[in-house]
């Protein structure tokens, strides 16, 4: 079963890079895909195999989109990220499946797994470490939107620097592909750590966050 967060209609031509990324983050994290993976007797091995396949797929997709040089290459940055995030999103769902927690996967889990390594500060209210346990809050949509905006702003600042690779056709494509491979590995590591450990929702904390977001 898939779950969606409704996307807001905006005038794409008037959006800044940060706003486009925020909208993309909401669209990606707001949809939890289904998976054909089931609880495995050797979940760590299966999860690593899923991660490796996804990393190769992400590297190929990113490298291909990064081939156009100059201004045209710059225009492919957001589509490139969205393509990578979709691959990573399915990977997270599949990894959750092999650990037997796919049915409990929420948009908060998806947001945390996809962006924890890139924007940890923005996600401090989503994943909370309590002793040896990592608690994932089932946060309300309003707070999800705030978190997505912080992630979008953080990523846009990084992309301004990365955009220079678009002016170096082949070398740039290889670098972008390598980064996508590494980035996907980071997402997989977060997902494996989360789903193989004692990560559970924290209802009391979540209620507090809902009240804060409603103010």
Structural overview:
It is a single chain. The protein has 215 residues and is mainly alpha-helical. The chain is 63% helix and 4% strand. The chain has helices at 17-29, 43-65, 70-75, 77-98, 107-115, 141-162, 169-196, 203-214, and strands spanning 127-130, 133-136. A two-stranded antiparallel ribbon has the order 1-2. The two termini are 32 Å apart.
Brief sketch in words of this structure:
The chain is 63% helix and 4% strand.
Supply database-style keywords.
single chain; 215 residues; mainly alpha; two-stranded antiparallel sheet; 8 helices
| Gross morphology | globular
Based on DSSP secondary structure assignment, what is the total number of beta strands? 2
Number of domains: 1
- Radius of gyration (CA) equals 17 Å
Instruction: Write the element-wise H/E pattern from the N-terminal end onward.
Output: HHHHHEEHHH
How large is the count of helical segments? 8
The SS-based structural class is mainly alpha
Helix content: 55-70%
**End-to-end Cα distance:** 32 Å
Low-confidence stretches: 9-13, 198-215
**Overall pLDDT level:** 78
- What's the main sheet like? 2 strands, antiparallel
Can you list the strand order of the major beta sheet? 1-2
Q: In what range is the share of β-strand residues? A: under 5%
Topology overview:
Blueprint: H1 17-29, H2 43-65, H3 70-75, H4 77-98, H5 107-115, E1 127-130, E2 133-136, H6 141-162, H7 169-196, H8 203-214
Antiparallel strand pairs: 1-2
Helix pairs in contact: 1-4, 1-6, 2-4, 2-7, 4-7, 5-7
